[in-house]
Each structure stands twice: as structure tokens, then as C-alpha cells.
Amino acid sequence: MRKILSMAVAAATGFALMGGLPEAKAAEKLKAAWVYIGPVGDFGWTYQHDQGRKAVEKELGDKVETTYVENVPEGPDAERVIEQLARAGNKIIFTTSFGYMEPTLKVAKRHPKVFFEHATGYKRDKNMATYNAKFHEGRYVLGQIAAKMSKTGTVGYIASFPIPEVISGINSLMLGAQSINPDMKIKIVWVNSWFDPAKEADAAKALIDQGADVISQHTDSPAAMQAAEAGGAKAFGQASDMISFGPKAQLTSIVDNWAPYYIKRVKQALDGTWTSTDTWAGMKDGEVVMAPYTNMPDDVKKLAEETQAAITAGTLNPFKGPIYNQKGEMVVKEGEALPDKDILSMNWYVKGIDDKVPGQ
Amino acid sequence: MPLKLERQENVSTLRLAAAPVVALLVTLVVGAIMFIALGQDPVRAFTIYFIEPLGDPWTLQELVVKACPLLLIGIGLAFCYRANRWNIGAEGQYVAGAVLGSWLALATHGTDAGPWVMPAMLVLGAVGGALWGLIPAFLRVRFGSSEILTSLMLVYVAQLGLDYLVRGPWRDPAGFNFPQSVTFDDVALMPLLFEEGRLHGGIIVALVAAAAATFVLGRTLVGFSIEIGGSAPRAAAFAGFDERRVTYGVFAVSGALAGLAGIIEVAGPIGQMQPTISPGYGFTAIIAAMLGRLHPVGILVASLVLALTYIGGEAAQISMRMPFDVTRVFQGTLLIAILAADVLVRYRIRRVEGTSHA
Fold first, then answer.
1. Which InterPro entries does the UniProt entry name for this protein (chain A) (predicted)?
2. Could B23 and A8 be called an inter-chain contact, meaning their C-beta atoms sit closer than 8 Å?
3. Which chain A residues touch B265 with a CB distance below 8 Å?
């Protein structure tokens, strides 16, 4: 078998060598690359990043050449892919999942002239910036809508991993819901995946069976939306506008709009003004966008629009005091707001959530 | 019309040698049709897939880094499969080894522990994997339960255990509650073989394992008892070979090598504990073991070929914007063609006479 296989490799080598050599280098363009955790067709997280990439191409046209690698697992493979992209001559590389943090950092140290951009992480370097969006702002609006729309007083939540971003999303939604109905209940299912349509759909069905009639998700596929549509429940989309998957179910969706950030950063790389920064943008910056409010009465729609406007204007902060933890202790005083660093490292639930943070 | 595969006795060397060439031609033709249908230049695609990764010292190193865990796990699986013990849970044994080995790295973190840490981690990794592998062996010997099911189920147990550890007790206190451990100290990291690149000492461990396995399986009584226990269990029993000892033995070896692969990967390319430490190496290694005909040297070649298809697939995504799924379909076509050609050379398809329906 050894001989056979080595011959196979040799034969392949011969065949391709006869065919010709790689084509000549194209005209000088800025090469930008993206690394994705899921498939570009997930209609969620990765899909929206890829929409951002396409927006860069549209905006900058001939000046850039973009490329991407999808379905890159977090782990030993990520470093190789990022290194390969840097070696392929890309000048700015966006790595769009938390687990790419260490690999991105390692590759960044080896390629000081390449700009690296890591989404959702916290480690930076001279040529490695980080960026994320304040999705919890959108979740506060979802909480208010859920409290208005739910007949059972129970919202179902499909959660991915118990990391601060997900925990703060749950808390923000709950604080929004409590601002309307202090007795609002939440049921949480952890699917331990960002993208697993089968598990997400099962989780949605289980939540509906347990009496939740509004479903919110922090996972990337539209499977939960479809399950809600089939089960007669209402639901919130995630990352992209999922109305086509739940025309009767979708109330709204938190849309990740990475386009403004990507265009800005690639332009800076082009004109030499790029610096390593830490960006955490929200509704105000157009990075967190709400899909149209549908399937709800006008008064709920009006309330949602007002809350959205207040958050955008900066007059409403979802994590303003008083906020109590599950033990009933006051964590944020009246008139104060939770500092960003505490939101970014959140691992506790607010009062009224009848669940336990996994691993705590 | 019932068909039957019949083993052919005297297969000529020429046909054996021709099989992979035919398989490759089939793959190239299927691939070319697929690439043309997608509007891609097939010649350029093949070059990127098979040639470019071999032409650059960095990608060559990456090839070996990617093949290393497949080789180690695959060799272990060869012990099991030769003995007709179906260990499907190498992925779990890989995780268990990584966990036990990492425990030492984290326990000595920040202390002035000396260079004994790395070798001790390797030993713990092997022990962890072996212990995890012995569970399905015990269940089979004691209760007769299917090791296919138990070993597979234990994969999920190991993965969830790892998940608990990195989200709970092993979480980096300075890491904003994100699920990962501190990065290992230098004494707990696999030494690199060259300044440039990621080639690490683990590959030497893997090559030593391959050489040792070739010797044990081919030249010793232990190897013979494994082989005979697999192909003729009754004959083995009459010859005085203890079936239970074989079961424990092959699962221990297989688990130990998978555990070793796990700790090498964590202390090498990854450098810390995190929820995902394997892109399915334990399962891909089953393909490597089968492609390599359960022979250590064959598995070495098969691991390198598999690694090449992964790295070539990534290169095709990067340089040609080829979708991920297309690269995987191409990879699958190659593997199926190789296996099919192999079977068709060694066996003959015959119509079974008569019209009886079994």
C-alpha cells in the first residue's frame, strides 16, 4: 500500500506538472482576507460577515481583491489557515470567531507588516486590532417586545456557549422584559454549538413544548425560526433578517452590519492610516441594526421603535442601575451603569432568571 | 440479479500497481468535470491541490504537523482492527490524554519546574488515553457489550468533560471568563525542530511509534496473537491465546497512542487548553488506518496523503475561491476511488448462479 500510494502522489505530481505552472501575478491590488467559522450560507453570523466582505468589494472595486476561507475549526487548523493567508500576500486579515484569538496573535507576531483584525476577542498587538458589536443593545428591545407579545409570560432562549457575550445578551433581554412585565420568565437551552441546525430546531421545539411562546436565539442558523413558524410561536432572528424563514413568526431580528467597519478598516489599510484599535460599536454606529418590526400590534411596534431610538441616542443604557443579581444583591446602583469591562466579562445572571450559568 | 465479491488468489503486481493510478485518473476526470462545471480551470486546481503544497518548506512542515496526530492514532487503531476490536472512540481517548497531560502543565504553571515537565506530560497523556480506552475493553470483556457503541459514546463524555474543565476550574482567571486555560509555560510546550515553522518534536515520537509498531505487529508473538485472534478466534483459543488479554492489550495501546497524540497537539500547535482541540482527528484516523491497510508504514503514507488533501483544499479555497464543500467532495472522490480500485483489483464481482432469494 505504501508503494501504491506514493506512486499515486507521484503520478498526480506528474500530471499537474505537465499541465502548467501557476498563472502570473495580477496587477497590484490590496489583498484582504476573511476567516469564517461556519459556511457562508449559514444565513447568520458567517453570512453577515461575508455580506460585509462583499460590501468592501462593491465600495472599493478595483482597489481590493478579497478572499475567504469558510468552515475553519477553532483549534490547530486555524493557525495554518491564517498563516497561509498571510503568506498568500493578504495585507489585512479578518478572523471572525473568538477561538481564532491565539492563532491570530501568533501569526501576527510573525508577519509584522500584515494587519490583523480579530472579532470578539480581547488580545491585541501592534498589528492586531479587535472589534465586536454591542448586540446586547438589540436584545433589550427584544426583551420588551417579548414581554408585550407573550401570552404565557415565558420567553425561550437558545444559547450557544456560556461566554460573556451570550450571558450579557440573556441578561439584557431579561432586563428589557422586566421593564414591561416584572414577572416575566425565561427558559434557556444550551446547545453548545454556534451552528447546528438540527440541535437548534430541537431546542426550539422543546422550549415551545415547555410553554415558551416567544423564542430568542444566540445561534447562527434559521432552524429555530422555522421551528417557531411550524409550532405557531413567535421568534426573533439572529445575525441576519430571517423573515423569509418565518414570515408569520419573526417579530424582528438583530442584524449584524459589519459593512461600515470593514469598509473603514480596509480603506485605512489602503491609505496607510491603519492602527491597532479596540472597537465596540453598537446601534449608534449602525453596526447593530434591527430588522423591520413585523407580526405585532402597532403599540408594541411603537414601543420598540422608541426604545431603539433611545438606545441609539444614548439616553437609554440597557445595563443602567438598579440591577440585582440572582441572590438579590445590588450590583449596579440607581443612576449608575455597568462599566463596559464588566459587561465584557459577565458571568452572572440578573434577578428573575431561574437558571444557573453553566460552569459557575 | 445477486452479485458476489470473490477474492482472487493470484493478483499480479502489475494490477496492484495499476490500481492507484487508475483511481487517480478517475479522480482527476471526475474532478476536472466538476471544476469545469464550476467555471474553474482544472489544471490550475490540480496544481494548487497537489503540487504547490509540496513545493514550499513551510507547507511541507504543515503537512507533517497535520499528519502527526493521524499517524499516531492510526497506528493504535491498527492494533485494534487487526484483532477485530472496533475502537471507534479514538477521539475520546485523544481528549482524555490531552486532559490528563494538561493537568500537569497547569499544575506546574508559574512555578520554576524544570525540563522534566514535558516528558512527564507525554507519559500522563498516554496513561490518560489508555485508561479511557480500557473502559470499552472492560465493558466488552465483562458484560459483552459492543465496543463500537461504548467507545463512541465515551467520545462525547470526554468532550463534555473537557468542556466543563475549560469553562470551570481550568479557566484562565485573567481571560474575561472566556473558556480557555492559560497558555502553557515553555517547559510544558513541545519543542520546535526548526526556527521557522511549526514542526515539533511530536513527529519524532510518532515515527518511533511507527517503527515500534511495525516490529511488534510483524515480528513478534504478540503481533501474531493479535492477528490470529482477529482472523480466527477459535484457532487462537486452541493455541492458548487469551482473548480477554488481547482485548485489553489492543485497547490500551490504541488509547495510549491516541492520548499521546492529544497531549502532543495541545502542547504543540495549540499551546493551551480550549473547548475544541481536535478537528475530528480520531475519526479521520480511521480512514488513515484503513487506507494504510492497517500497516504502520501504509498509515504513515495515508496520513500524509490525507493531510495533503486538507491543505490543498484550503489552498484551493484561498487562491481560487473554491467553496469548502467542493474541496471536500473532491477529497471524498479521491478516497472512494482509491478504496474502490483496491477492492476491484483484489476481488472479482461475480453473478451468483440460481434465483434463490436469501
1. ABC-Purine-Binding, Peripla_BP_I, PnrA-like
2. yes
3. 76
Instruction: Return the SS3 of A291.
Output: coil
In which band, very low, low, confident or very high, does the pLDDT at B233 lie, cut at 50, 70 and 90? confident
Assigned domain for B57 exists = no
Q: Distance between CA atoms of A300 and A146, rounded to whole angstroms?
A: 10
Write the pLDDT tens digit of every residue in B255-308: 999 999 999 999 999 999 999 899 889 999 998 998 888 999 999 999 998 899
A152-162 residue pLDDT tens: 999 999 999 88
DSSP label of A293 = P
pTM of the full structure:
0.81
Contact B305 A9 (CB under 8 A): yes
Position B354 scores a pLDDT of 60
Half-sphere exposure of residue B72: CA atoms within 13 angstroms, side-chain side: 33
Q: What are the grid coordinates assigned to B347, written together?
A: 476481488
Within 8 A of B168 by CB-CB distance, chain A residues are 359-360
What range does the domain containing B257 cover? 67-285
Distance CA B221, CA B236 (A): 12
Instruction: Find residue A234's DSSP bridge partners.
Output: A214
Q: Which residues of B touch A85 (CB under 8 A)?
A: 318
Nearest-CA neighbor of A338 among A328, A327, A348? Answer: A348
**Cα–Cα separations (whole angstroms), residue B16 to B21, B134, B306, B338, B346:** 10, 38, 21, 12, 8
Residue of chain A nearest B179, judged by CA positions: A163
CB contact under 8 A, A359 and B276: no
Does A7 sit within 8 Å of B276, measured CB to CB?
Answer: no
Q: Is the peptide bond before A222 cis (omega within 30 degrees of 0)?
A: no
- Domains annotated for chain A, with CATH where assigned, are 28-133 (3.40.50.2300), 136-255+289-343 (3.40.50.2300)
Mean pLDDT value across residues A317-342: 93
Q: What is the DSSP string of B85-126?
A: -----HHHHHHHHHHHHHHHHHHTTTS---TTHHHHHHHHHH
Cell 485508561, residue located: B131
Tell me the pLDDT tens digit for each residue of B107-160: 999 898 889 999 999 999 999 999 999 999 999 999 999 999 999 999 999 999
Q: What percent of chain A has pLDDT over 90?
A: 79
The C-alpha cell of A251 is what? 417579530
> Does position A24 have pLDDT exceeding 70, yes or no?
no
Rounded distance between C-alpha atoms, residue B120 and residue B123, angstroms: 5
Task: Grade residue B16 by pLDDT with cuts at 50, 70 and 90.
Answer: confident
The beta strand positions in chain B, using DSSP E, are 3-7, 347-351
- How many structural domains is chain B composed of? 1
Cell of B350: 461475480
Q: What's the rounded mean pLDDT across residues A179-200? A: 93
Distance of alpha carbon A108 from alpha carbon A101, whole angstroms: 10
Residue A3 clears pLDDT 70, i.e. is over it: no
- Between CA B207 and CA B226 the distance in angstroms is 22
β pairing state of A330-332 and A323-324: antiparallel
Residue B11 inside a domain? The answer is: no
The angle at the Cα of B230, spanning B225 to B231, to the nearest 5 degrees, equals 105
Determine whether the interchain pair B270/A19 forms a contact, defined as Cβ–Cβ distance below 8 Å.
no
The CA distance from B349 to B2, in Å, is 10
Partnered with residue A288 across adjacent β-strands are: A256
Strand partners, A94: A34, A117
Give percent above pLDDT 90 in chain B. Answer: 52
Across the beta sheet with A128-133, the strand order is A64-69, A30-35, A92-95, A115-119, A128-133, A278-281
